[in-house]
Amino acid sequence: MIALSELQTGARGRVVSLRLPEETAARLRILGMAHGKEITLLKRGFFSRSYLISTEDGRVGLRRKTAEKIFLNALSENSGQAESTN
Known about the structure:
It is globular, with a radius of gyration of 12 Å. It has a single domain, classed as SH3 type barrels. The protein contains two helices and six strands, in the order ββαβββαβ. A hairpin with a 2-residue loop joins strand 4 (50-55) and strand 5 (58-63). A six-stranded antiparallel β-sheet has the order 1-6-2-3-4-5. It is α+β, with helices and mostly antiparallel strands. The longest helix has 9 residues, at 22-30. Helix content is 15%, strand content 38%.
């Protein structure tokens, strides 16, 4: 499990947890960042201060402090399955 802020540009992950205030987490779930949903990191902003994420429902822009509190299982490029850490 890694923080969204650690994901490489172009990489995909499946949302595991949102360690954010409930109001913020609820808004992100509405935007497609719910537990189990697949996301892709499209772009990092200047000095990684912001992130552009693709979800099933569209695109979401996030600040670094928010991205640091969203945890994912990284997905392998070919299978869409979570990568093993063994």
